[in-house]
Amino acid sequence: MRILHTNKSTSYIKMKILRFLLLFLIIYFVSTSCQENEKHTIHEKIKEDTNSILDSLITIRRDLHQHPELAGKEKRTSQIIANYLTDLGLEVKTGIAGYGVIGILEGNPTGKKVAWRADMDAISSDFKDPVSFKSLYEGIQHGCGHDVHVAIGLGIAKVLSMNKESVDGTVYFIFQPEEESFKGAQNMVNSDFFTLLELDEIYALHITALPVGQITTKPNEVFAYQKRIQLNFDKGITEENISELYSKIRNSISRVGEGTLPWKTELAFDPSLGITSPETIFNDYLFVEENFILDSTETEYQLKSFLYETRNSNLNKLLPQIENVIENSELSENYKEGFYIQENPTVLNDEALTTAAIKTLDSVYNTTAVAKSYGQIPYFNDDFYYFQQKIPGVYFLLGGSNESKGITAMNHAPNFQVDEESIKIGVQVFSFLLIERSKNKK
Ligand SMILES: [Zn+2]
Question: Which residues surround ligand 1, an ion (CB under 5 A)?
Answer without folding.
Answer: 144
